[in-house]
Amino acid sequence: MTPPKAILFDIGGVVVISPFQAILDYEVENNIPVGYINFAIQKGPHDTGAWQLIERGEVELNDQWFADFRAQLSLPQAWKEYWITQSAQQSLKDGAVPVAATEPVPPVPAIDAKTLFWRMMKISRTPDPFMYPALRRLKESGRFVLGALSNTVHFPTGILDDEAVLFDKSLIHDPAPSNPYAQDSPDITHCFDIYLSSAHVGLRKPDPAVYALAVAELSRVSEARGWGRVDAGEVLFLDDIGVNLKFARRSGLRTVKVGLGRTREAVRELEGEVGLKLLDERSRL
Fold this sequence. Notes:
Elements: E1 6-9, H1 19-29, H2 36-43, H3 50-55, H4 63-73, H5 76-94, H6 113-123, H7 131-141, E2 145-150, E3 194-197, H8 198-201, H9 208-224, E4 235-239, H10 242-250, E5 254-257, H11 263-274
Parallel strand pairs: 1-2, 1-4, 2-3, 4-5
InterPro entries: ACAD10-like (IPR052898), HAD-like_sf (IPR036412), HAD_sf (IPR023214), PGP-like_dom2 (IPR023198)
Protein name: HAD-like protein
Organism: Massarina eburnea CBS 473.64
């Protein structure tokens, strides 16, 4: 295929370690069925869900929001739907009668929303050992317009985390002499030509409007460089969430799925798309 003119990256789970890893760890530690928290977040509701509101920048990150987020993760109807669906799937595998059809649904798991949230934010400060070096090589090549499109949170000045420590969202680079990126800027936005944060633009994936905005901004940079207009089909988008990729494709973008813990494989696919060698085990972070 013709290489893309522009490459658009999600941040968490692509360029930095996935917050989904923190969710998975929390579920395992607290005996919560794996996948329930993501299910509850995605259920929203879209217009009024606490997670959806914070990622569109419509509410402030404060104690009231943490209470609302906990309520979103504790909705009985979401838990019941998850439990019945998972029980039915497991029963099909086992050849048994679905548990949910014969037994009461257990109580909704107790989730410490504040602890969970800050674990997600803290883990996302670490550059991914495969994708971050690939991004840096793409930037050094000077051949592409690079953008970020991330569902993010606006952190109020002076906000404290769950341990009453001032939160710093800066990247944490390994200072080891063997790390060629040890002296890189801790500001992730420096890696890109455009950086679109959902909480700052008021749109979040998978809203088609945010993909249109991203393409327009990438095109603006390309035209300013004298490279000409960028159309949606000339943009390659990397994300770790299926529904985000689905709507990106509907918007005309090319896509690469980045699975949890599978960034190395995604970089291999990216190499094929751009025609450059990006993976070097010797420079792994």
